[in-house]
Amino acid sequence: MRVSGLALCSVLAPPLSYAAPPVAGPYVSLGAGVNLQQNEIVAPAPSLGFDNNVIYTFHPGFAGEASAGYGLGNGFRLELEGDYLSNVVRGAKGETNFGTNPPRRAGGEEKKYGGFVNVLFDLDISLPVSPYLGIGAGGQAVEHRPFSQNAIGVTPLPLSDGGTRSFFHDQTVGGFAYQGIAGVSVPIPFVPGLSFTADYRFMGLLDPLPAFQLTTQRQVLVLAPPTTRARYEIVQSTGNRHFTNDLNHQVILGFRYALFQPASPLPAAAAATAQPAAPAPEPSRTYLVFFDWDRADLTGRARQIVAEAAQASTHVQTTRIEVNGYTDLSGTAAYNQRLSVRRAQSVEAELVRDGVARGEITIHGFGESNPLVQTAKGVREPQNRRVEIVLR
Fold this sequence. Notes:
Porin, 8-stranded antiparallel barrel, 4-stranded mixed sheet, rod-shaped
């Protein structure tokens, strides 16, 4: 019997269920959820009448993201993300060396929007659920519309509608941002390429943030010479207030769609009748080429085997050369069908390079059918990841 081949070692996955295939090629995603913003500390600004820290607290707010990326097929993904966050101020309180002042009335809204470059990695746990981890770096615009606070000794500034507010600023600044991502994706079987995603994101801005410029009016108690009679004067000051931290915790639910995915496979019974039965190999004229998991490229040893088959086809009476591709039982049936065809095409191209006429070759992809080694669904069996070159 003439059988040649190369089997590369791989780790066997537990036969619990099929493994979600790695993302390969371009994809888009969209998600929305909640943003929990940590308290922000504003540094003292004595020239403006604020001699101690002020701590702002926030209500839970909105978080949204949209991304476009590319999966490398080996677990790694690269993506560009745009995001939008919004949180309304809950309140403010002063912080001194002697403790925390009673809460003050405060208002306003902080919005953040910008973008990240993310690097993510999908973990293979041999289940239809695929966990992933990632990191990102980018920039965020921080918009305050408006921030206000009642503070002791501050005269309210007039507003255009005739009202007053103790002090306020309406500005947007920008800064460097970073994030960490941990989540899971679950394929939706009846829509090829579509997955449900749920992830947690921690996002921070470089500390301290750029300053917000603020104008205040203060009532200052002064003595009016030459008498000692006291009176109040209004002093207007302009200066900067520095926010020293901006940390956010997000929980986002969404969908990811991988482009250019094959159509859904036929039901098992229909598929059995629709696709041709795998031909019974002729051992004396069969050459086996083995592949690594989820790969369709040829190794150096595999090219030697293909060359042996091409050379043998010139020495024996051959009416046709069949090239049949197979996969193991990990992954979905649709993905494996496509992968088996890619493997057969790789071998066909190598045979042509070795001098075999393309018209003498027929190729088939049989997916995960007709395994050499019977295994449970989801098991990565190296001997089942093969192409059979049959000289007839």
